[in-house]
Amino acid sequence: MIGASGCAQDSEIAGLAEEVGRRLAEAGVTVVCGGGEGVMEAVSRGAAEAGGRVIGIVPGSSAAEANPYCTEVVASGIGQARNLAVVGSGEVVIAVGGEWGTLSEIGHARAIGRTVVALRSWELSGRERMDGAPGVIPTESAEQAVAAALAALGCRNARR
C-alpha cells in the first residue's frame, strides 16, 4: 500500500486508505506499507483495528519511526530507496492518492511486474508499449480497489 506521507488524517484520501486497510484485513491479507504518517498511517489503522497484520518498512534505522498501528516494523536504514522494498514485498500494490514518492513507487512496482491498483492516484499515459499504462488499474472507491487487488491475486476472499 502506497500513498502520500503528507496526507492529513481527516482528509477524504485518508478515509479511503483506512477503508482499504480494513477491507484487506477482513480478507486476511497482510498489509505492507512505508510505516510512516499520512496514507501509511491511515491504512495501518484500518487494518490493525480490523485485526490484521501490518508490516511497516521505515526509511530510517529506528523502528520508533513507525506509526503506532504497524504490527511489525522493518527499519531499513536506506531512506527513500526503501520504496522499492515496499512495492517488492507485496504481490499487488494499491496506491491511494499520492505525491512524487508514490509516483516513483508506481514506476518501481511496474518495472518488477507488480500490478498497481490506483485509487484516486496518478493518471498515467505512455507511448508504444506503455500506451494505456499497462498493469495500472484505476479505481474510484475502496471497495473497487480491494476487489481489483484480490482479483489480481487470483482470489475472491484471500486469507494471506
Q: Would you write up a description of this structure?
A:
The protein is an alpha/beta fold. Helix content is 36%, strand content 18%. The chain is built from 5 helices and 7 strands. A 4-stranded parallel beta sheet has the order 1-5-6-7, sandwiched between helices. Strands 2-3-4 form a 3-stranded parallel beta sheet. Helix 2 (39-49) links the parallel strand 2 (31-33) and strand 3. 48% of the residues are buried. The model is unreliable at 156-160 (pLDDT under 50).
Quick rundown:
The protein has 160 residues and is of the alpha/beta class. The protein has 5 helices and 7 strands; from the N terminus they run βαβαββαβαββα.
Topology:
Layout: E1 2-3, H1 12-26, E2 31-33, H2 39-49, E3 54-58, E4 72-75, H3 82-88, E5 92-96, H4 100-111, E6 115-119, E7 136-139, H5 142-153
Parallel strand pairs: 1-5, 2-3, 3-4, 5-6, 6-7
Helix pairs in contact: 1-2, 1-5, 3-4
Supply the CATH architecture. 3-Layer(aba) Sandwich
Separation of the first and last Cα atoms? 15 Å
Please give the CATH class.
Alpha Beta
Oligomer: single chain
* Number of domain modules: 1
CA-atom Rg in angstroms: 14 Å
Largest sheet: 4 strands, parallel
The beta-strand count equals: 7
Strand content: 15-25%
Task: Please state the average pLDDT score.
Answer: 94
| Structural class by sheet pairing and helices | alpha/beta
Low-confidence stretches: 156-160
Number of helices: 5
The 3D shape can be described as globular
How much helix is in the residues?
25-40%
Name the helix and strand elements from N-terminus to C-terminus, one letter apiece.
Answer: EHEHEEHEHEEH
At the third CATH level, what is the topology name? Answer: Rossmann fold
